[in-house]
Amino acid sequence: TPAPAAKPSSAPVPITCSETPTVSQLVSSKHLSELGKEPRSPVSQRPALALLCEQTQGGALTPSLPPRCPACRFEKLDITPKSAQKLKPVLEKWLSEAELRNQEGQQNLMEFVGGEPSKKRKRRTSFTPQAIEALNAYFEKNALPTGQEITEIAKELNYDREVVRVWFCNRRQTLKNTSKLNVFQIP
Amino acid sequence: TPAPAAKPSSAPVPITCSETPTVSQLVSSKHLSELGKEPRSPVSQRPALALLCEQTQGGALTPSLPPRCPACRFEKLDITPKSAQKLKPVLEKWLSEAELRNQEGQQNLMEFVGGEPSKKRKRRTSFTPQAIEALNAYFEKNALPTGQEITEIAKELNYDREVVRVWFCNRRQTLKNTSKLNVFQIP
DNA sequence: AGCATAAATAATAA
DNA sequence: TTATTATTTATGCT
C-alpha cells in the first residue's frame, strides 16, 4: 500500500468545494497522502490539478464534461489503487515543481506548462462497422492468422498491422472469456 | 466489475489487489454475498466456513506448499478480484457441500476439494514506477544483458531474477512489434 | 456514469 | 527467440 495511514493531526490544509486551493495547499503532504482515498472537489476548481490533467491528456479541460485522464480519475477516486500508486510519483513531482513556480511569484499557473512529455498511450482506434464486419468474417474462417495473413488483412482493410494483430488477440480473448462464463454459471 | 474503488456508495468491504482480506471480510464482502441472495450469517454460524478458516489459517494445510483448492486460493486471495469473481460459484458450492458433510459429522472435508488444476499461473507482478524507470535505464544501456548482469539487476532492484529476465525479453519483443522497421508494415 | 473493447504488459509456450 | 495467452489498464462511446 503506497499511502501510509498518515496521522490526521498535522493540521493539513483541507480543500473544500467552495474554495480554490493554492498550489501550496495542493502540495501539502497531507493532501498528497490523502489523494486516492477521499472524494475531492471538482478538478475545475483546482488549478494545479486541472493543469495536470491538461498536461497529461494533452487536451483542454471541458467545463461540462469532466476530464477522465488518469490524473483526474485519481483525484476523483475513479481509479484503482494500483493505478493510483503508479500515478503518485508523477503527481508529486509535478506539484512540487508547480509550487516552485508559485514561490517565484508566477501568479498565472495556467501559463505553466512543461514537464516531461510522458509517452502517451496509443490513441484508441475505432474500427468502422465495415471493418469490424470484415474482421469478424476473417476471424470466423481463421481465428489464428499467421503473421503474413495478418499483414495482408491489415493491408486489405487499410489498418495498422499491429492494430489488426491486437484485434485478433483480443477477439480470441473475449471469445474464450464469454464461453468460459457459460460453463461456470450455474443458478 | 473488479474495481470497487469506483463505487462511491458506502458499500461493504471491497476486495482489492493491494490488500489481503480476512475470512470475515470475505464473508461479509460484496463479492461473496452478491451471489447469494441474502446477507450472510456470521462465520461462527457457518461450520464449513469456520472449518475453512481453521484449515487455511491454522496451518492444517501444508504451510510450505500453497494449497491449490479453490477455497484456499480464494481465502489467501492468491487470485485477482476478477478471478475471485469467477471462482465464487465454485467456492460457494464447496462451502455448501462442506457444511452438509460437517452436519453429517464427516471430519475430513478436504477429500472432495481437489479437482482444480494445479498448474497455477504465476501472479502477475507489478513493477513500481521507480523500478520501471531503472529497468528502462538499464535497457537503454544494454538491451541484452548476460545472465550475470540480469542477476545483478534483479538483486539491485530487489525483484526475482526470473521476473527481470522476462521483463527484458518482453521489452525487446515490444520494441520489435512496435518498430516501424517492419518490412510488411503498412504505412 | 458504465460499458465494451483497444491497448499495454507479464507470463507462458513453442 | 518468436508467438500467443492471460491479465490489467484506460478510453471512446452513449
Element layout with pairings:
Two copies of one chain form a homodimer.
Chain A lengths: L22 H5 L1 H6 L12 H11 L12 H6 L5 H23 L25 H13 L5 H11 L3 H24 L3
Chain A binds a DNA duplex (14 and 14 nucleotides) through helix 5 and helix 8.
- Count of separate DSSP helical elements of chain A: 8
- List low-confidence stretches of chain A: 1-45, 55-66, 106-118, 180-187
What is the share of helical residues of chain A?
Answer: 40-55%
Which outline of chain A best applies? elongated
Largest sheet composition of chain A: none
Structural class of chain A: mainly alpha
GO molecular function (chains A, B): DNA-binding transcription factor activity, RNA polymerase II-specific; RNA polymerase II cis-regulatory region sequence-specific DNA binding
Domain Homeobox (chains A, B): 118-178
Family (chains A, B): Belongs to the POU transcription factor family. Class-6 subfamily.
Keywords (chains A, B): DNA-binding, Homeobox, Nucleus, Transcription, Transcription regulation
